[in-house]
Amino acid sequence: MEEVEVVVAHRQRATLRVGDVFLKVDGDPAHAEVEVRAMGMAPVPTPPILWREPPVLAIAAVPGTALGVLGEPSTASPAAWAATGAAIRGLHDAPLPPWPGPRLDDLAAELDRECAWLLDNAVLPTEVVRRNREIAGAALRPWTPVFIHGDLQITHVFVDGDEVTGIIDWSEAAPGDAMFDLAVLTLGHEERLDDLLAGYGPDADRDVIRAWWSLRSLTASRWLIEHGFDPDSPGCEFDVLRARMREPEGLRRS
């Protein structure tokens, strides 16, 4: 008998692993609909879909191992990171998915709301929130939409040696800012940005990526806390925010 492993579980969704099958249970059927459609459109390796019976989506495991985990150094080679960058570039160059993506006004309102919550509840020192809110402003500019994954965490990219074997968890895919994907993937792994961009190409905006590190960490923290995760774990969101305080003043404002 195969053991059942709980991969992740919170109030919105749960993912279970039984052997080489992942069962994703989500109370919102729209998430699975986006995931299925996005995987069918994406020009990168994705998990095979085995069956779908709402609220459950069954997908097969992809070969290889995750590019890394948040809070620990990535053991993947520079070539694997470069291959990941090339795969992401292929995604960003693909035709846009035909559903709406994040709106700039909504992101700005969310950032203000979450910063206020962090300050009102004394979750982080005022100066850390204020400085990162200042840095995050560089991400709040018009962008040319591309096909983004939308939740490109380091654990969602699988590699075997120097080859990308699969990218998973597509429920947030949409037209959006290319720099957002690059920032989420390197969140807490900023030292691997050069390796990633070696494969992605020279036109990435490092200042905007840095801004998204701050914005993503500020806006995700309350959700993480309320769903049983700890953004103050080593190498995670709070460490990302504190790291901005150690940067030279000119770099913070770039």
From TrEMBL:
One Pfam family named in its UniProt record: APH
Residue ranges occupied by any Aminoglycoside phosphotransferase domain in the UniProt entry: 44-212
Protein name: Phosphotransferase family protein
Organism of origin: Saccharothrix xinjiangensis
